[in-house]
Every structure is written in structure tokens, then in C-alpha cells.
Amino acid sequence: MGKYLENGVRISFAQLLEDNTICIPKIQRDYVQGRIDENEVRTEFLHALLGYLQEGKPFRDLDFVYGFLNENNVLYPLDGQQRLTTLMLLHWFLANKEGDFELYKALFLKEDNGRLDTKFTYENRLSSKEFYNQLFTKEIDFNNLLENDEGKNNSLSKSIKNLSWYAPAWDWDPTVQNTLNMLDAMRATFNNNNTYFSKLTDKDNPIITFLFMDLGKNNLSDDLYIKMNSRGVQLSSFENFKAKLEGFISKTNFKAEYILKIEGKDKIVDFKTYYTSQLDGSWSNFVWEIMKKNDPKIENPNHFDRFFSNLFRISFLHSCLNSNISFDEKVPFIKTFLTHKKDFSFYNYQELFKVDASNNNIISEQSLLELVELLDVLSNELYACFDSEFKYYNPFETLYLLINSDYNTRHYHERIMFFAHMEYLKAHKNNLNQSSLHSWMRFVSNLSNNTAPYNNEKEFINAISYIKDNIKYADNIDQHISNLSLSDIVGFDSFQYKEEILKRKIEKLDASWKEMFKKVELHPYLNGQTYFLLMLVGVEFDAVDNLDVSMLKEIQDNYESYYTIFRELFTASGLNQDFSRNGNYLFERALLSINDYTISEGSNFSFLIDSDRDISWKRFLKLDKREEHKSIIKTLFSNLLPFSSNIHSGLNSILDFNCGEWWRFLIINNPEILNYFDRGKKRYFRLNSNHGFVLLKGEKISGSHAELETYNFYLNNKIESDKWEYYSVSGENKDDCPCAYFDFLFDNIWYGLDVRYIDSQFNIAIKRRQSVEYSQGLIAFFDNEGFEKLSNFYAKAIGSYDECEEFLKSNLSSIINETN
Q: What are the residue ranges spanned by the domains of the chain?
């Protein structure tokens, strides 16, 4: 038995094989560190080995290796198989790469009956054993490897598979294939010209070592150990992350000191002591409280790990947002933070987030100090800051949403609110004022709600930058913004920003307006947007310098009356459907009676929907899309004011059935036209297309659409005859027009009659539905009525709507009768 194999001895791989051999027993699994899906583990381990060798500090331990050493000096490892296999491969690789194969042979090979055998072998598969016997006894010229395949780094494995001794059957052995993957990874990692083999095999000061434990000496049978090992629970990804993070903390010289209560007394402790104590103490208790508060049934520890992992991610996200790297550098990092659907491992954080000019990663002394600060603030201050009466922001619901995130949604608004909250708490730990915090969060809530939805990470980062720049005013935000001029802003919506300044100026003059504003802002559809009501009572941006207390007193009652009307018209989700789809579109028709209220988006216009940043009713009320909206809203509300107790009657009083603009006239008089749009769609139309004024089922003209005049004609005439149908088309082919139509039988032949609208006049076309000649009687009718033969059908321009109806009733009665 070798002199180094006392229990617990620190030993290098070369020292272990000096007097012994290693045999991976049949009970062990295949070699997996080289597996394709183990890239992270493999890369992290190889980088750690490279780091140890570059540093040159001896005796860097790779933990314990457990096994049985028999009387023939054969070691059967039961724990450490993967590490030992990787070390054997690394020695073979470096010996070949650095030209030290002769020294390698002396250390790792043995001669048996004139042939060289490896001292390291596998017994779990015969093919694995044969492959390792071949590989570990062969010298390979690294200067003459085959070229990599395109897009791959596989020249070493490709060269090995091309050698005469490589058996094709090994392509199906997972240990062999994983070994080849590992060798390619080693070549990619150890790609410098440094020499490391001698450092690995140094007898006196080896760089990489491990601690050996002979289970036989502890009277443990292999059966018992196998049972113990098989029933072990694999560490979760978060447990692995925490372990590696604690290792990082142990190597970092933190200057910070903390006060920790130990046995009832305050003691000054270092960062590591404080971190480990709080992690298993108050911070973990806090996460459990948040979990139970939002879902009392949660008991699965896996939920806890996911929630805590997301909390770490949130803190590192904040560190990235607070870092000094440029805006353009932050964008891809923030996108990765918000879209990566799995927990980040320690390796992910190290490799993906380089956040300063020195290429340092996100896990640093600074970010860990920020992590501790955030977790302390949450566990100590969160419950003290908000009462149930504050409706602008719920910190518990927001935090739970973020730590419960599966990253299918980016939650920009919630992250902005949480960031603003945390920045306030961190800035005011020693002078926390609940009233000031409420004012700050009201301000941020109104801005963010009326900037959302955010389109991308750039908009999100801009919003965060505004919060960072203005947190210094947060303890007196109302006073601060009441002194500002109405100006644009970067980070949030400028229109809403001006509204917030205007409201604070009013509140400064007359404090009674503050509660009134809050009541309106908290309407769940408005979420802070109130300017249209101020406009209605004569307070506009351009009149901000003319504000005075007496005027504000005079207009208060009207302001509340207009808000009462608004609450009748709009629910939490949008327009009250009793005045829309469920009420013959009374609201839309009243607006169209006043003027064209629609909003354009690209080539389309919309009759507006409840929820959309650009074409919603809320955007209409914002008054920033079209100048006409202001006069439309003034007319609407002034006409409804006498009908505040009966809005339905008020809307009816506005209807103008003789509206001069033809398309508005049609919709006002035929509300069923608006039923063309499916629920949930954007209610788009186009004023001009190859088919005229069209109603779109979707968002593009290439999709299904109807022409307004013929659709109106169809709706009116289907009441008299259920034979009428409507043909919607896709695309803008002029030869395929949307139309109202019906089929009829004449002389036992089926025909279709289309009513189309072309070049501002109605047009009638009749075409065959069967592959037969036109009836002579019908041809005579065409000749008599002036129909023109066009391709395979007959058509006639008629003129106006009334002329079209009259023509059909007078001249085609026989056809219609025969159809019926």
C-alpha cells in the first residue's frame, strides 16, 4: 500500500497512481462531465483547474474522494469518479500537448508482458475499458490534428476518431463520446502556451490535490455506502448557487462591518458572518412570510428556492441598473436578466454579466453589499411603510409577483415601482416618513402607469434612470415638482409628467384638491390620468400661470360633476358596454355625431378599444393624438351635464341622423355596422384602399375586410330577405371586390347577383354558378337593361344607394321572386 494513503491525507492524482491503480467499478455510472448538456459544469470545472494552475499556489483541494483500496493496491472509487476521470484526461491531454509523454508514461502506465497498460480503467462497460486502454497508452501529435468542422471546435476528437485503433462501435458508448467532448473542451480552455503538466505532477508541491478516505478502514461495506449514496437528495440549483457564492465571499476581503445580535447582545461581525447568519435567519423567514401571505397553501421547498433565487436576481438586476457601464452596454444585460427562463447559476452570473470597464462580472463586493442592503431593507422595513389605505402600490403583491415570476412576462411597470420603492427605503433608512413615501410612490405610479406598456429594455432603463436621478427629491416630491416648469422628460411620458406638475401646482394653491385628484387618479381605468377633466373646467397647460385660489374654488363642483359622468361612461376595464356593443353603440355614434373621433395607427384608423397604448379610449381622453379630441370631449360632456342622472338619454340627444360626412352618416344610422368587428380586435378601418372605405377584421388589408357602402346595403336588405349574404375578401385585387350578394335560380341554372361599390357608385354584377351557357332569357334581360359583358359575367353601373335599391325592386322582381 502506498505511503500516501492514510485516511484524510492530502494527495495529488500522480501521487495516488504512483503505487496504485484506479478501477471505476461496475456499479458506477458512465462518465458524464463531458456530456453536451453538462456544458456549464464542465466549463466551470475546467476554468477552476486552469485558474489553480495559473495561480501556481500548491495544494488546491478538490474535496474528498471516497473508495476502497484492496490488498492488490487497486482503488475502487465510490465518490469522486467524475473528478478522477477528468483529472486523468487532463494529465494525458497536457502531457501530449506539452511534449511530456515520456514522463507521463513513467507515472501513469505500467508494463504487463511486454505491453503498456493504463493505471486508470473503467469496468462499467467493456467498450469504455477498451477505449481508455487505447487512449491512455497513445501519444498524439498535437501539431498535426485535423481541421475543425465548420462551426465546431472538434479537431482533437475528430483526429482521435480518425486513428486506426478507434473502433466505430465506440460511437454508441456514452462514456467514450463524453470523453471526446471533454477533450475538445480542454483544448479550448488550455489554449495558451503555458506548461502545466510539471506543476500537476510535482511531488513536493502539487497544485491540485484532494483528500482521500478509505471506507474499508472505517468498516463501511460497499453495500452500505451504495445504499447511503443512492438515497441522497441532489442539491437544487439554488443550493449549488448559494454554496459557490459563499465560496466567493470567503475569498473576498470585505471591508464592511455589521452589527449582529448574538445571545442577546449586539456584536460587530464581518461580512461573511453577517451574510450567512441572515441568510438562514431573518431573510429566509421574510421570504416564507411573503409566500404564506400570498398563498397559504405553499409548502414545497422548491417554491422557496425559486422565490429566493428570483430575489437574488432582482438584487443583481438593480446592481446592473446602478452600475456605471454605458446605456448601450446595459441593454443586453437587462434583456438577459428579464428573459432567461431558468435560475441563474453562479457560472451564469460570472460569464454573462461583465459590468465595468475592467470586465468584472455582476457578482462583486459592491453588488453583494447591495444585496445585503436590499434584503435587510425588505425584511426590516417593508411592513412598516404602507397601510391598506394606500391604493397606488401594494409592495407585498408586487414583490410576490416578481419573485414568483417565470420570466414569460417582463413586468416592466412592477419592476419600476419596486425599484422606486427600494431606492426610497435605502435612501431614507434613518428618516423614513410614510407620508413622503406615499407621495413619491403616487408620483412614480402615475408616471409609469401612463407610460406603460413599455416596448423594450431601453424604455425601461430610461425610466429607471429618471428614478435614480430624482430619488434625492423623494422626501419632498410634491413641493419639488410644484416648482418646476412644464417641460418634457426622458424616461416617462412627457404629457403625464406635465399633468403631474400641473396638479401639484393646483394642490399647492388649494390643498383641498389633493384628495379630489387622488379619488380620480385611483379610478382603475384612468390610473392617474386626469388632465381631460381639468381641461373641461378650463385648467389647461397653457394657462398654468393664471391659476388662482378663487378660480379653483369656483370650478370644483363642475370638476366633480364631470367625473361623475365619466364614472357612468367608463368602468374599471374600459367603456361601459351598456353604451356600446350592448346598447347599439350609442357612445360611438354620439361621438361621430359631434365629429370624427377616431385615431390613426399606420395606414389604419380605429373606432377605439378599451386597452391599447395608442388606440384606446384612454388615449382618446389623454388629448395628445388629435387636436379635434379636445372639442369633441368638451361638446360631449357639456351636452351630458344636464343628463347626469340619465346618461342614456343624454347620448341620444346628441345623435345627428343627418350628419353631413357620408361614412359617419352610415354608422350613426346603422349601428350594426360596428358589429362587423370581432371582440378583442382593434376595430380598424381604412378610408382609402383599392376597395374604397373598408372595415378590417384584423390589422392588415391582406386579411378579411368588408367595404362600408355594400356592407351597409347588406345589413339593410337582409332584414327584408334572408337570402342576402356578404362576401368579405382578403387583399386588394380590384377584380375580387367585397360585396353583398344572393344566389338565384333562373331557367334551372344557378346565378349569383353581386352588389358592389366601385368608383363611388353602386354596381350590379350577375355571374353563373355553373359551367353552362347563360340562359337566353337572362341575356335578353341584360341587353334590355344595358348590362355590359365583362369577361365571364355581366355588369351595370347603377349610381346611388337609393337608385340601386329601386333598380333591384323594379327590374329584378322576377328574379328575386323566382329565387324565393
A: 9-230, 410-569, 577-609+630-687, 710-819
